[in-house]
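[audit] Reproducing an earlier prediction to check determinism. Same input, same settings, fresh worker. If the C-alpha cells differ from the archived copy the diff job will pick it up downstream; this log only records the rerun itself.
[audit] input (206 residues):
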Amino acid sequence: MRGSFKFQVSSPKSQARKNLIHKPSKGFMEHLTYGPSAGQVFSKAVIELTAHGISHPRLDAEVLLAHALGTDRTGLYTRLHVPLSLEQQETFRVLFQRRMQREPLQYITSVREFWSLEFKVDLRVLIPRPETEVVVETALRLLSQSAIRNPQSAILDVGTGSGCIAIALTKRIPCSRMLGIDRSWDALRVARTNGRQHKVSGRIDW
C-alpha cells in the first residue's frame, strides 16, 4: 500500500523517538510508523481490504481494530484520535493479515453473535449461520406448552457444535432440560465453555 504516516518531531528527543518506530513484517502494517491514530489505521485498513475484494471491509476493519484495542465497535469510535501503542499495532497487524488471507472474521476474534448472545467459536466448530436462528424460532413455536412446563421434558440437540441452539433454547425455556450431542469431543468442549459462559451448564448435558 502506498504512502505512510509521517510525524514531525522537533523536540531534542526526536532521535530517541525514531528508535521506537515499529517495523512489522511485510504487508499493510509495514507502512505504519510510531504513533498512528486508531482513525488512521482504520481508514487505511478499509482501503486495503476493499482493494483485496474482502466482503464488508468497513465492518471487518471495525471489528478487528476494536478487538485489537480491547473494546467494542462503539468504543472504537470514541478513540479514533488516540495513537496506537506498539503492542496494539502488532496485535492489529497479525489480525489484519489473517483476514487478508480470508480467514473468517469469527475465527480471528473467536466470537460469534447468535440469538443476541455471544458464543466462543474456533476451528473445532462450525460458525453458526444467521439462518440457523430460524431453527430456534421454529422450535419455540412448535414446542407444546405442556412440554415447556413439564420439568421432566428434555430437548435433544443433535450435532450441537458450539452449543448455540441448545443454549439459546435453554435461555428461553426456563423449565427445560437439554441434551446436546456431537460426534466431536472437541466441539463438545467448546459447547461446555459456552454453557458456562451463559450460566446454563446445570441444565444442559453434553
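[audit] rerun output stored. Observation attached for the diff report: DSSP finds ten helices and five strands in the chain.
[audit] end
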